[in-house]
Amino acid sequence: MKRLLLATLAVAACSSGVAADSYETLVEMNEEILELARPVVNDGVPDLGSAAIAKRKTSLDDFRQRLAAIDTSAWTVPQQVDYLLVWSRMNDIVFQHKVMQPWSRDPLSYLYQFRGIPHADVPATTEDAVALSAQLRAVPVMVDNAIENLTQPSGELASLAIFLLDNFDGVGQGEPYRDEPPEGTIGWFDDLCSRLDAAGSDLLADCRKATAAAQRYHDWLSAELDGMQASAAIGSENFNWYLRHVRLLPHTVDDLRGIGQREFHRYRFNYILDRYVNRSLDELALTQSAEQHEQRTRDAEARTRKLVEDLALFTIPDYMPDEFESDVFWSPRAKTDRHFWEELQFRNALNNHIHASIPGHRFDAELRKRLDNPIRRTHSESARAEGWATYLEETLIQAGIANDNPRVRELFYAALIKRGSRFFAEIGMHTGEMTLEEANAYMMDWVPYMEEDLGRYDLVGYLRRPGLGSMYLLGKTEIEQLISERAFQLGDAFDLGEFHDDFLSRGIIPVTLIRWEMAGLDDEARIVWEDVVGTAFPGGE
Asked: Whole-prediction pTM value?
């Protein structure tokens, strides 16, 4: 109903007093495309059937015609930037329909509908019990839909779904903590059923049916696996379209390879050099308890805040939390069996906390929530988001965050090597040059502390969301280029702290567009506009 109302508002903009070419129309259309991106949900089950997909495709075609008809020639540059952001949102859905087609190709898209359900606690109230019962009853329907809709499944993605149904992934992101985690999604359903049984819950029958449905999905995928197309690769041509039309980047896969190769080996050189210089120093000691981990995290955040304030690197607004949580949580298992980020975080908490919390993702997200611009408040582009968080790592190392403990520098460069390796792994998978297993083996060979579980966890995301892995270093290099260009423009008047505040105030949008808006440099934006919108660049010659 909401989607129909938004569409009606957009079509009737002129008669309601809102001009069809007004910025207000674009704001309304942004809300419409956000709604269009969400699948219709019936009784807790996303509808990914052919009729629903065809209906959305028709709505998408109508939306594109209306968006293309808007005349933005008299708009300000920030408004024209926002116009491209709405094109980006629309093209992301177009790409899903034309290329990714997760409803028919990706068995993981159905697994993720119910994978988190058995993480629930035993219901404490009638209301909680009703909600959990509805979720459990939805699982067999989700599995039925998967078997019906997966007409061209990728064997690579099906194998990963089978693995996750059967096995703990070794990372546990998003799972309740257990010293000995259940083995995969089916194991978690068994665990929930055991807890419900011990509590004498009426939901035990629903839980057992959901468990049986998860097992049925596993068995169906296993039986069909040999007949599936093996690779989930999308190919260079599709990848290039995605980079231009969705990410709004004037780059190709070959460009990414060049940037990745340069940065990857530069980071490896710095890591090798630091290890050589520091060879007489003691190695960093691993964290041994939850209390020590929490104290190290708080010390890392205090050190970061102090350096930022001492150097006036940017403003920390008063509304920011007094402290941010960590992305890596303590586990006694980590004393003997650590994934990559635990290897780093439990030696020193600075790198991950800077990237994921402050001044990285969580800090960035708090700023975005308070943007006045309704389009940018709902937009988050990974080259800008991950680029900023990655840019901070080497920036704060160069600014002296680890001057009193040189061994910490090694961890920062190990993390950057990891991020750099994603260029080759992701591109290799999508061009068909590597399988996921080969991409993971490559990262384990080249990246310090790298191991199979975290590699697989990351690569699943990059296989299902092209460009995500490459955006960390690409965004970082774009930010560094913009700083250099802006400093050249302003000369002695350039102030890095003021630049950071200005940059962050523009939202989590492509750096290509921030560069046009902030510095008036429109060469890259011109390429993107003419390719994406298909009309002459509004800035003229």
From this structure: 0.93
